[in-house]
Design a protein that fits this description.
This protein is α/β, with parallel strands linked by helices and 257 residues long. The protein has a single domain, classed as NAD(P)-binding Rossmann-like Domain (Rossmann fold), CATH 3.40.50. 47% of the residues lie in helices and 14% in strands. Strands 3-2-1-4-5-6-7 form a 7-stranded parallel β-sheet, sandwiched between helices. Helix 4 links the parallel strand 4 and strand 5.
C-alpha cells in the first residue's frame, strides 16, 4: 500500500533538488529532466550548476550554500515567481569525513551538522509555507543507512543522518493528513565524491544513475522510505534490530574495528 500519492507523470512538475552538482542529486535531476520535469538544481559550485542548466533546456540553476538561510529563502521565492508553484523539494546536500573518537575534531563534526542537518531545516523553513499554502507538494530528504545505527568511522556523519531519518518520519506524520507527501531516501554505498573518501571495500557499490532510477521508482510507487540496493540495505535493517551486545560484536568483527 503506497504511503504517499503515486507520481505517475513527471511532465511539467516543478522539482527542486538542493545539492545537485554531483552524485545522486545530479543524476536524479538528469533523469527527471528526461521525463519532462521542470528541474531546478542548486549547489555551491558555479561551474557545475551552470553546466547542468546549459545542457538541460528549460532547467534552472540557482547557486547557493545550504548553510545560508537567506539564500534558501530567496531561491524559494525565485522558483515560485518563475513557475507559480513548487511540486517537490529534495534535500540531497551532504558532507562526509571519516572520524573516530580517537581523532575527534569539533569543527569537522559541526560542519557535518551544518550541511547534513541544519541545511535541511533551512530548506523546510523556506518551502513549508509554500507547500502548506498550495495544499499539495512533496518533501524528500536524502539520508543514509549509516543513520540506522552507529558505525565505525561514522562519528560525525552517522548522527546527522539519524537526525534526518527522524525528521522525515515526523514530517510524514504532520504533512500526510494535509495532502502533502514526505519521503526518506536511505542509500547504501553509491559511487560519489563523498564515498570516495572511504578507505574500505564498500559492499554492493552502485552508480549514481542506478541510485537515481531507484529513487524515482520509489516516488512513483508512493513509498515513504526508499532504500537501495536492497541486497545490502535489507541486511542493514536486520542488523539495526539486533540487541546491543550482538550488534556491537558483529559490526566489530565484520569491519575489523
Amino acid at each position: 500500500m503506497p504511503l504517499n500519492p503515486r507520481i505517475t507523470d513527471w511532465a511539467g512538475r516543478v522539482v527542486w533538488l538542493v545539492g545537485a552538482s554531483t552524485g545522486i542529486g545530479r543524476a536524479t535531476a538528469e533523469l527527471l529532466h528526461k521525463q519532462g520535469a521542470k528541474v531546478v538544481v542548486s549547489a555551491r559550485n558555479v561551474a557545475l550548476i551552470g553546466s547542468f542548466e546549459k545542457a538541460h533546456a528549460g532547467s534552472l540553476g540557482l547557486v547557493l550554500d545550504v548553510t545560508d538561510h537567506a539564500a534558501l529563502a530567496g531561491a524559494t521565492q525565485q522558483i515560485v515567481a518563475k513557475f507559480g508553484r513548487l511540486d517537490m523539494a529534495v534535500y540531497c546536500a551532504g558532507y562526509h569525513q571519516p572520524m573516530r573518537a580517537t581523532d575527534f575534531k569539533l569543527d569537522v563534526a559541526l560542519q557535518h551538522d551544518r550541511i547534513n542537518y541544519v541545511g535541511a531545516l533551512y530548506l523546510l523553513d523556506a518551502v513549508l509555507p509554500v507547500l502548506l499554502k498550495q495544499g499539495f507538494g512533496h518533501l524528500s530528504l536524502v539520508s543514509s543507512v549509516a543513520g540506522y545505527r552507529g558505525l565505525p568511522t561514522s562519528l560525525a556523519y552517522g548522527p546527522t543522518k539519524a537526525a534526518l531519518i527522524n525528521l522525515a518520519q515526523t514530517l510524514y506524520l504532520d504533512l500526510h493528513p494535509l495532502g502533502i507527501g514526505a519521503s526518506l531516501i536511505n542509500p547504501g554505498f553509491v559511487e560519489t565524491p563523498l564515498t570516495a573518501k572511504n578507505e574500505f571495500t564498500m559492499p554492493a557499490l552502485i552508480t549514481p544513475d542506478e541510485a537515481a532510477r531507484e529513487i524515482v521508482k520509489g516516488w512513483e510507487a508512493g513509498r515513504f522510505e526508499i532504500h537501495f540496493p536492497r541486497r545490502f540495505t535489507l541486511w542493514m535493517k536486520v542488523l539495526s534490530h539486533l540487541g546491543d551486545a550482538l550488534y556491537f560484536k558483529l559490526v566489530s568483527k565484520t569491519t575489523g574495528m
